[in-house]
Amino acid sequence: MKLDYNSNCCLKFQFLLCRSNVSLLGLGNHKEDSPFLNNVDAARKNDFYDRNLALFEEELDIRPKVSSFLSRLVNYTNITQGAREHEEEESANVSRKKAPKAPNMGTLMGVYLPCLQNIFGVILFLRLTWIVGTAGIAQSLIIVFMCCSCTMLTAISMSAIATNGVVPAGGAYFMISRSLGPEFGGAVGLCFYLGTTFAAAMYILGAIEIFLKYLLPQAAIFHASGPHGGDSAMLNNMRVYGTLCLSLMALVVFVGVKYVNKLASLFLACVIISIFSIYAGAIKSITHPPEFTVCMLGNRTLERDLFDVCSKTVVVGNETVPSQLWRSFCPEGNVSSAQCDDYFSQNNLTEIPAIPGLASGIISDNMWGDYMQKNDVMEKAGLSSVDAKGPAESIGMYVTADIATSFTLLVGIFFPSATGIMAGSNRSGDLRDAQKSIPVGTILAITTTSLVYFSSVVLFGACIEGVVLRDKFGDAVNKNLVVGTLSWPSPWVIVIGSFFSTVGAGLQSLTGAPRLLQAIAKDNIIPFLRVFGHGKANGEPTWALLLTGVIAELGILIASLDMVAPILSMFFLMCYLFVNLACAVQTLLRTPNWRPRFKYYHWALSFLGMIMCVALMFISSWYYAIVAMGIAGLIYKYIEYQGAEKEWGDGIRGLSLSAARYALLRLEVGPPHTKNWRPQLLVLLKMDEDLHVKYPRLLTFASQLKAGKGLTIVGSVIQGNFLESYGETQASEQAIKNMMEIERVKGFCQVVVASKVRDGIAHLIQSCGLGGMKHNTVVMGWPYGWRQSEDPRAWKTFINTVRCTTAAHLALMVPKNVSFYPSNHERFSDGNIDVWWIVHDGGMLMLLPFLLKQHKVWRKCNMRIFTVAQMDDNSIQMKKDLATFLYQLRIEAEVEVVEMHDSDISAYTYERTLMMEQRSQMLRQMRLSSAERDREAQLVKDRHSLVRMGSLYSDEEEEVLESPTEKVHMTWTKEKCEAERRNHTNAPENFRELISLKPDQSNVRRMHTAVKLNEVIVNRSHDARLVLLNMPGPPRDTGGDENYMEFLEVLTEGLERVLLVRGGGREVITIYS
């Protein structure tokens, strides 16, 4: 029966399918199949899906099925903050463990309300009224706009990063470190940690201020000893109570975080109730303003708690007597006494409403600022006053400024009230849909808080008297909290609510900061923080909490809310700066993994956010900004110095790649100008049997020559097959990299595997580098022991490399006796670097000593340049011209011209040449006879096999002995046996040929040059630290390669350190600027 092509193919396919099904159904060898399947797949071998994957079964352990991969991906849960990034392998008791609780928090409870709680804080209740009174409504709105705009732009960038994949609960630190790398991540992570820690100190100081000023003033331990001692006494009280409060809070956090989280809702309710009471009070003030009054003496504001009535006299019965206020200003207490304070005598007392109300029109008076110096008295501009000086003792009766104020100071104090936007991203592990909730919740929270701040600024300016607004501690309103005087139904609503909210915010900060430090420590990018990664058995960061408490205590000891606020502003601004930078870098690089679900971002917005962060840092406090940047810079350099071995796919790596690509494309335009030429090295290293670098001083010399500048590629060749030698390649690369690190060589390593060493070196010379960033100079070692070895591979590979560099127009440097070269730790305090300039080869000989003298090893050596004059040269003129040339090159060196007039060939030269040629001929015959013996043994072993003709010594011998046909069939015959016997009888004749050999005249001339030059060089430079001379090129006829090696040996005999140099065919040094 005749089948067409298609039916035939179908039958073949069905037959193959049946065979594969038989083997997969278990009829084959189980022992062969099982090792390629994991346990799960082995248990389900009869599964139809697995049968269809037989072609991939050998790689299922490294390339899992799509179904198992997706199941692991779907079951992925967000790791807790500071935990390991990668899941542990499943153990046998996984099924017995309790299943983790699925995240179920939405946008409102998971992001919006936590952000509100963290953003609203102590500044709103304790300092916003003072900021409005000092800066005025207009400038206060500018301050709020700047701070809120900065956080809004940062929130947009953060939303883009947070929605670009699954964000474990590491907050800002995780986002920055994974976007910008471990160096930036560690630096900014620690800055964020310090900011959170100082925030805890600020909240505690705010709580203690509320407690001692408004809740229980009687609890003060220290009291004022004079009219100006109140400030120092208050600071000491803050330190004592702040330390006690910090210790109590740390104990609560240590005992259990769950109690802090349970109280968070209560604290948030306090904040919301307090804010609503402010709005209610402002609305009520339209018709029924609160009955708080301010006592004014002239236009000066008096402290209301120091007297009972705002009057100079009071009527007791029918008699007018001096009031308590009179007795404060008039020590004698007599109504008619002239011993009163002049200002008190000449000005009247008036009472003005502290809260005129929303409809009073006071907003026009509070529109512009009134910045004050320390101890300036609060004055109202509209009241009449007779200017007069009074005694210094009376100053304690007035409300005065406790610090000097400025716009920049107010920015630094207000900015912490805009922070806290990271609360949602910190809880990403508990969110049902983090990629949706974080952007929506955070931006809504910032919008809400910004509206509250804007409206509060306007309401405070429109309802409260200016002198009361500028009164930071409410001295003019009988020691009441200023914002509390506006609230409804009672000032105590604000006082109690703000106290609990600040305590809650402090607890939250003390809870979050240690976990952030633990996350940084567990990432192991900062070695000295490693101890803080440990904690209690349940993972609570005990040691990190202890360090957090110590740092927060430093903030407590400052004891001033106004001084702590700018410090934490710096650290938060540093964090926000790098969040914006991360988003901008990722957006501009267009990295393939940058696919945020949040689409309303742009790199320009991120850059604007960066600019605003930097501007706010220097506006707030330029010296704090420099300190914060210095701390971040030191941490960055420390992590970089320690070598953070982390690859997180960060944007800085992508930025480096983009910059490198741009630079390489620019370099591709053309070869570098002579002024920019520097040796870009390809250092060829040889590895020993243990895969260690055989001559590490080659790397030492390279590091001294380069001093960290330009390109250095270290290459090596492993002989063999790449598939079989991959492990050796990796081990060799690691060994070379370790040696490069020891010798401080900054560069790249490349190891290639080739069947022949010379081919591998040729590949390195051709292919190393990329684009315009390619080597222009090859450094290779001298083949030591080439005379003693019967194996010509070493010197033939050497000469072949010289020819390759010449063909590729590359410069070549061969350090001879490299083991005598100095290490990087040695110092030459004197000595000379001698340059023997025999032929002009592009100026390499002039440039190399100059580069070497830049290194500390050679710095104190003097440079001497020798050149050779022949019979018809004017040596005096040559010396003048050379000195002029060096002067124009700006190179300082001694110049000497050596005359070589004796051109007669000596008997020593003749004998040396003869010995060289006889030795070469004898070694050639020995290699031939040895090859014949080895071939005869192989033929006896297997007469009827196909053998490959060639040397067993080296690849190079193949070229000499290989017949035109690659393989021939050899038969052991009688004629062959007789021919072999005749070859052995010819040995005495070969020896007689050696005796009667006459040297070649060209070799004699070359030997004469080598001997005469060596005599001159040794005579002049025998004590030089280093001798550089031109390296002659190899002969065009490859038959004289062995003689070429002898010439080089003769040329360099008797010199301790020699550097043979060949130029690359172009000028490398110029006299022009």
TrEMBL record:
Keywords: Cell membrane, Chloride, Glycoprotein, Ion transport, Membrane, Phosphoprotein, Potassium, Potassium transport, Symport, Transmembrane, Transmembrane helix, Transport. The keyword Nucleus does not apply. It comes from the Eukaryota. GO terms for cellular component: plasma membrane; synapse. It catalyses: K(+)(in) + chloride(in) = K(+)(out) + chloride(out). It is found in: Cell membrane. The chain crosses the membrane at residues 106-131, 137-163, 184-208, 240-257, 264-283, 403-423, 443-469, 489-507, 543-561, 567-588, 600-617. GO terms for biological process: cell volume homeostasis; chemical synaptic transmission; chloride ion homeostasis; potassium ion homeostasis; potassium ion import across plasma membrane. Residues 696-814, 828-1073 form the SLC12A transporter C-terminal domain. Residues 111-282, 405-682 form the Amino acid permease/ SLC12A domain. Pfam families: AA_permease, SLC12. InterPro entries: AA-permease/SLC12A_dom, KCL_cotranspt, SLC12_C, SLC12A_fam. It is a multi-pass membrane protein. One of its GO terms (molecular function) is potassium:chloride symporter activity. Belongs to the SLC12A transporter family. K/Cl co-transporter subfamily. PANTHER family: SOLUTE CARRIER FAMILY 12 MEMBER 4, SOLUTE CARRIER FAMILY 12, CATION COTRANSPORTERS. This is Solute carrier family 12 member 4. It comes from Gadus morhua (Atlantic cod). The lineage of its organism: Eukaryota, Metazoa, Chordata, Craniata, Vertebrata. The gene is slc12a4.
